[in-house]
Amino acid sequence: MQATASKLEGSRVRLDVEVGPEDLQREYARAIRRVSGRVSIPGFRRGKAPRPIVERYVGAEAVMREMVEHVVPRAYTDAVEQTGVEPLDQPELDLPDVPSLDAPLVFSAEVAVAPDVELGDVAALEVEAETPEVSDEDVESQVTELREMRTTWDPVERPAQLDDVVGVELSITAPGLPESEAQVYSVRLGQNGFPAEFDQELTGTSAGDEFAFEAEIPLDDPNTELRGRRVAFSGAVESVSEARLPDLDEAFAQTMSGLETMDALRDDIRERLLEQRRLTAQGKLEDDVLDALVDASTFEVPAVLVEQEHGALLERETQALVSRGIAVDTYLGSIGQTRDEWEQQVREQAVLRVNRGIVLEHYAEAEEIQADDDEVVAETDRVAASYPEARQDTVRRSLAGDDGRARIESAIRNRKALAKLVEAVTGQAGPAHDHQASHEPDPDVAAVADAAAAEAEPSEAAESESTTP
Question: Which of 115, 316, 364, 425 could form a Cys-Cys staple with 299, CB 3.0–4.6 A?
Answer without folding.
Answer: 115
